[in-house]
């Protein structure tokens, strides 16, 4: 196991763990700790990428297939083959193993574990504001803050290559992400604890920034982003994902991407899959605060379907549940998503939580400023659809929107990088010793330049890994189903 620890008092707010006694160090003592970390791990050393001999990225991907639905795994490989960027979106396990031997300052935070640029985006807050934040926490775990920063920076380098941007413009975006992270962390270091906890970035704040910069093109892009987000709601899901059967809405069948429960049931033993999932749904409700339980109990169950989502998650069990409230025009869609062990656990140690569903939910609550009101988790004592036992639950579509990498221009990528860097810093500042991290990062661009060099080197390695997967498919080692 990698020897990455958390000094007493260094990691704040870690629920579920047996935290060391809080020492309440002074800001000066915390800053001194961060500066002392430079002697052990110079910021320039953060450029290091020393991959292991005999490294086999395809074998790591294959190891994840053992716990997934075999018939869906070829879809995952097919989606990863689409481009080096698509491959990167699914390679969190591979990159975690490559990050393990890299230098770290010994300063930990609650990590996303998969902080690439397309795991940021907009969604609705409980107050019905459009907020910008991280939105994927399947791999969340406590670990070195640098790992999230390097994955984010590398994703901008790869996205720039995907758009055929010149090297200088790609580097501008990478620098923007890391510089924004560093400056934001220094900003948060000077703030009070409650002010950090309340800090958030919403569409109004982004719009205000763009107005100050007098960037009308990016402002128009934000307006399109907002409009798309507001349309991407439960009513659109109702229109696209369901049809009326015998007077009741039912999920449309679109195998293998959407398979209604009625086409899967029959392998449930003494309990049907439907009755088992409904029993687990009742358990899930107990993980919600009392006010949310009161709300969700107003909805009645209507239908269930298995749904394929994302790239890295393909093959894990994911269900969508349709409920109706006041009448047939009041739908609620919940996503019940399998929570497997984090890809970081073999390297950083097991999660302190009894279930991976709770690990995901608590990690999300720590890192996000405004969470889904229906966020909760489930543990099953029964094997579901071949073995899944831990799930987390959230709304399926609730103004969720993300970057369109295929159309973004170079200036837009830089602006987006700045936004993601700020957001990641705020997410880390909620759990970590932000003063120590800020002191380590400093006011110069040494850390920025080192991480930019790492990102360029890892993007090269990612292209090699993408080609290795293509060769494995060509040789018949793994099967890929493309275009699905």
Question: What does this protein look like?
Answer:
The protein is α+β, with helices and mostly antiparallel strands and 484 residues long. It folds into 2 domains: 27-103 and 138-212 and 406-474, no CATH class; 234-395, no CATH class. Helix content is 45%, strand content 15%. The strands form 4 sheets. It has a 6-stranded antiparallel beta sheet with strand order 8-9-10-11-13-12, sandwiched between helices. Strands 5-3-2-14 form a 4-stranded antiparallel beta sheet. A hairpin with a 6-residue loop joins strand 10 (318-324) and strand 11 (331-338). Helix 7 (167-189) packs across helix 18 (446-474). The chain is globular and about 70 Å long. 45% of the residues are buried. Residues 1-21 have low confidence and may be disordered.
Task: Using the alpha-carbon principal axes, give the shape.
Answer: globular
Largest sheet, order of strands side by side?
8-9-10-11-13-12
| Strand content bin | 15-25%
In round numbers, the mean pLDDT is: 89
Q: What is the strand tally?
A: 14
Radius of gyration: 22 Å
Largest sheet: 6 strands, antiparallel
Low-pLDDT regions: 1-21
């Amino acid at each position: 196991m990698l020897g990455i620890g958390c000094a007493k008092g260094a990691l704040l707010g870690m629920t579920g763990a047996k935290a060391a006694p809080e020492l309440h160090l002074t800001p000066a003592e915390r800053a001194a700790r961060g500066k002392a970390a430079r002697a052990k791990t110079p910021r320039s050393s953060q450029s290091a990428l020393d991959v292991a001999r005999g490294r086999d990225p395809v074998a790591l991907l294959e190891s994840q297939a053992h716990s997934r639905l075999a018939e869906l795994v070829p879809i995952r490989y097919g989606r990863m083959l689409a481009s080096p960027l698509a491959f990167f979106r699914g390679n969190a396990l591979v990159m975690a193993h490559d990050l393990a031997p890299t230098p770290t300052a010994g300063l930990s935070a609650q990590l996303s574990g998969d902080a690439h640029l397309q795991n940021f985006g907009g969604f609705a807050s409980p107050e019905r504001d459009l907020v910008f934040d991280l939105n994927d926490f399947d791999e969340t775990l406590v670990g070195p803050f640098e790992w999230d920063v390097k994955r984010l920076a590398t994703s901008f380098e790869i996205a720039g290559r995907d758009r055929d941007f010149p090297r200088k413009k790609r580097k501008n975006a990478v620098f923007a992400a890391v510089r924004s992270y560093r400056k934001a962390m220094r900003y948060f270091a000077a703030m009070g604890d409650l002010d950090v906890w309340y800090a958030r970035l919403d569409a109004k704040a982004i719009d205000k920034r763009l107005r100050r910069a007098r960037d009308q093109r990016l402002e128009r892009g934000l307006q399109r982003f907002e409009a798309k987000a507001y349309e991407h709601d439960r009513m659109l899901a109702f229109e696209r994902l369901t049809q009326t059967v015998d007077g009741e809405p039912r999920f449309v069948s679109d195998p293998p991407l959407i398979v209604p429960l009625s086409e899967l049931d029959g392998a449930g033993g003494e309990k049907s899959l439907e009755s088992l999932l409904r029993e687990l749904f009742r358990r899930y409700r107990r993980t919600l605060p009392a006010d949310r339980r009161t709300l969700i109990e107003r909805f009645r169950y209507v239908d269930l379907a298995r749904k394929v989502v994302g790239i890295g998650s393909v093959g894990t069990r994911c269900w969508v549940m349709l409920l109706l409230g006041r009448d047939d025009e009041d739908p609620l869609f919940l996503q019940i998503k399998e929570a497997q062990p984090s890809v970081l656990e073999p390297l950083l140690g097991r999660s302190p939580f009894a279930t991976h569903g709770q690990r995901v939910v608590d990690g999300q609550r720590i890192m996000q400023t405004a969470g889904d009101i229906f966020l909760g988790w489930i543990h099953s004592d029964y094997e579901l659809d071949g073995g899944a036992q831990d799930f987390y639950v959230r709304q399926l579509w609730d103004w969720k929107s993300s970057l369109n990498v295929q159309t973004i221009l170079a200036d837009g990528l830089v602006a987006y990088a700045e936004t993601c860097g700020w957001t990641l810093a705020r997410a880390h500042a909620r759990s970590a010793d932000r003063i120590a991290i800020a002191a380590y990062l400093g006011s110069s661009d040494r850390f920025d330049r080192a991480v930019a060099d790492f990102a360029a080197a890892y993007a090269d390695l990612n292209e090699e890994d993408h080609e290795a997967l293509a060769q494995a498919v060509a040789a018949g080692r793994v099967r890929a189903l493309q275009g699905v």
